[in-house]
């Protein structure tokens, strides 16, 4: 039972569990922070970006003017952004049987895994995960493909050159494994392999294990997974939330009695409380608009944006922002807003019940109806005709390296009246803003991460009591920036088993049993005898058949009746020889009674010696030893078979035969 | 007592003494008792005049079935001097001592109170043993010394009580000990020195013994007894065991009990320094343990153990969330008290206490502190608003003109609280108050960062936060309105503009606070030397406020408008821009549906009248500055014309006939003062000519009716001026009528007794009627 850790990112996990002859990949998150080393991709020509100076080494020997540009003292690669994939060398990805997806943020590397690696298995995910995951991938591909670059930069990756570069490019590892974004065709092909599952639906894998998705409360269709056999249970906890937001609440009780609980996807900002951040978001937004500025909110096209819009729906009127236009710009904006309204069964109870009124579950429908919220596929087309300022724009990508957000950064960055509010926690906002420096625009960081915090997770673990917890090593110490906060780490007994990228962990299991079934006719033939009240035992002779990870005891086939012997002998398969089993003995030999019995039979000179496991009786006259132990009795006498037989029968008197 | 009462009293006594008559409402007994208290003036032989009372008391005390409420009532009645001698003479002390442990708590407590009263009264009737010469107050000796006692039964009674107390304290029944401890605590606090000393001598040993037994149920009472004893001269006597007992208590009490006890000790007068120091240590220890680094804690606990105190339980308490919170809160609020008394300086440097409190505040929001607290501290305290509030209170009470380093620490943590998105709205409000306190003490204008925080908070989602931010802004502006740099910072921050948008906030409290805040800041920013650009002008704001008064559907905003006008007019700022708005405010305010708005409008009118009259040398207010020039009738006439122009008389007369009493009262008193001024100057002025009231709507309405009642003819009404109306109206009589409360008829002892009788006579017929 092993766990291969292909990603070191705690919230974008990719682990492979080898469990009872199955190979299960748990999530395949895509670490996009590598894109931050690249120059933003502007939708319209940006004079500022095109004027950035190229990089030449100080001594002039290395000239990478075309590949690397300098902005505010930092180097950026002028090429299509590339991503850091899960580790591919640790194990043969073609051997993976299934991939379990826990939420749409944790499947962005799927095409890299399922395509071109020889993968032939199945991917399991819930319907919202698949649909919204598809939207996010589609959006990503669209962002990349609509601004093609003539050439891609590769020289800088040369090890000899890379070490000459200034930080942080110099320190980046494994740049050769970075890959460009996949194509739409690859996305479609990958998503074809997805099989839909519902919460609590049990899926059998080769008869060996059963996997079950459970609601995790984090996003639409997000799940945790139970992977269990008859005697072992592994829980996989990925992004989960106990807060009351739009998704169905988290199913905690099904996680109980796990042998191993793999814990990933805790909040990335443990010090920021989502409620407080939401308040901060609203007040900064109102402050900017009242001062006549615009607000830019870089965000993903699904997820927290639903909660933001819901919160604004209430806030707009109370803050007198009724006339301010709100724009949501994304190639998939329309689908995202509409999808959210149709997945009623995946929503929290409160929203589900609205469907019966009938009312749309999310209030953004009303914002759209009243023209307060408008959505567009991109800044081109209708948007440019209807654009009014001051306004609030929600658009991607949160990395600020591609997508329509790049345009707004160029447009609004120069005025201190405008504000950019970061709500997605995936990227460091300082790194994200680096290629836009110097920036006059106000920046507000209010990351909203509804995933479990350390306080909640320790409560949860107390409740579900797994025997062992496996987690990313980041969770076993306080965050670097908050070294004094000893409360921001997992403290468990026994301590959690930490993992990092490329680690292979042997998982400890307490039990090693298999379930075997008896055929009814075999069961009928059993003769149970009671050894203790309520416990009966019986011996059984049978043939064990193992097929598809199921084990069955069948009666021993009777030897075929001897064929008429006149004909020429054929070579027939000999049936296994059936030996009548010797009866099994059980019980203990009581010393006092046994000595009395011996003396009745004339053996009186007995020296008793106590041992760790029982007694040794030395029959001095006969020069014989009887070792009485818990699980066996030995009679040691030299060439005195009659005596041995007598003694054996005396011992047998005290034992029960099966 | 009138004859009706004399007649009713025996009937009431009979009813109360009858155990079959149940009294459903015992509050009337309390009122009855109050009345008795008032009746029994010294020397009035109550019992002799009313023998029914004696019958009542003795029958109730000896009855086995008496209702506990009646019994306790009777016991309370007995606490009067004559009744007590009666008790002694009849040998009822034994009964009372027995009742001290009655199973009804009402009876037991009333009996205990009675015993305490007896001990207290004993001083006056006994010629007591002289204690100054150090003679031991042995009961037998005492008896010998009492040859001159007026009432020998009395001495016996006292001795009996003392003996009873002594026995009870060594009793194994904890309720007995408990009752006697209560009696001792009460008597120590209230009795005369001789009785007190005697009582303490007889109980001291027993108290010491009981303390050793560690009966936790009695701990609270021990503390009360010790604290009562410590407030007497017994405390400062040499060889007093009280100090030792208190020191033992400090060490053995549970931390949650020890802190309030320690706080009590520090409040004591003549408290020995060593004891005070120990008590301060107990109060500060939880704070030190939470904020001090681990190695220091070890050192500390070693020292503490050497000192004989076992405080391992303190660490245990601090590791548990709920007890950690309550301990810290106790410690912090005791520090506030100490700081309030100014006694902190003696015991330890305030600076380090301030730094400790700051550390707690930091821990509560997850900020790093210089020491490394135990892990559980963070877990227990992060986001705990209860501790945050207590710590902020302490910080406010510790406010003083400190060294720079402490000051910058204080402001940095306060700014963190004001800025943090997780600050709870009540905590935020406290943080604002503390910030204000410290800013005022330091008398330096607030830092720039405060304005950016204010900007954000004015846009907060929670109305409470917007409200308290505006309130803070108003207070800040009112304190710093003289400070030019504050005015400049305020203007450049954009805060006034943002506050202006809050005049349309959906929450009426916020609108009201925005009105106050702008009312204050506009005075600050409309000053000479402050650049005009970018700020709201007084005239413009005044017009806006008039609109609010006319249109806002909620009372808070409307009340605020009037108050702000009052503020503006009573300040020395130029008010030329205000004449027109003030006229509108007076009219709108007096026509408002809310009585408070109307009262505030009358206050505004009062100010205008005082100011106008002061200009002409007349004054309705004792505080008005008197004019140097000699007042003349012409000036007064002119002033009245001016008031008429502002429609103030309309406001006053409409108020006078308002259906809300406070409005009418207020209008009446203003008119009276005006009448006084006019009366003084009648010969000087032309009564007829001024202020024709023709065409005023109020004449047609209520005033007309009133004047008709006074037989003023319809013809003369038409031509009456203000002065005439004022002189015709009997304002004095109106004021008296308005001054009477509406229930003045219902509060008599006679009706009380009738009520008691009626309640007990509740016949079946009545009960049936109810259905």
Automatic annotation (TrEMBL), chain A:
Name one cellular component (GO) term: cytosol
Residue ranges annotated for the Beta-Casp domain, each copy included = 305-433
Source domain of life? Eukaryota
Keywords assigned: Cytoplasm, Nucleus
Pfam families associated with the record: Beta-Casp, IntS9_C, Lactamase_B_6
Main subcellular location:
cytoplasm
Annotated compartments:
Cytoplasm; Nucleus
GO biological process terms on file? negative regulation of transmembrane receptor protein serine/threonine kinase signaling pathway; regulation of cellular response to growth factor stimulus; RNA polymerase II transcription initiation surveillance; snRNA 3'-end processing
Locate the region Disordered: 548-576
* Family indicated by similarity: Belongs to the metallo-beta-lactamase superfamily. RNA-metabolizing metallo-beta-lactamase-like family. INTS9 subfamily.
- Please give the name of this protein: Integrator complex subunit 9
Automatic annotation (TrEMBL), chain B:
Record keywords, A-Z: Cytoplasm
Give the GO terms filed under biological process for this record: cell population proliferation; DNA damage response
One annotated Gene Ontology cellular component of this protein: cytoplasm
Q: Which InterPro entries match?
A: ARM-like, ARM-type_fold, BRAT1
Coiled-coil region(s) at which residues?
A: none
Task: Supply the Gene3D superfamilies for this chain.
Answer: Leucine-rich Repeat Variant
Name where it's found. Cytoplasm
Q: Which domain of life is it from?
A: Eukaryota
Cytoplasm among the record's keywords?
Answer: yes
The UniProt similarity line reads:
Belongs to the BRAT1 family.
Q: What name has this protein been given in UniProt?
A: BRCA1-associated ATM activator 1
Q: What is the lineage of its organism?
A: Eukaryota, Metazoa, Chordata, Craniata, Vertebrata
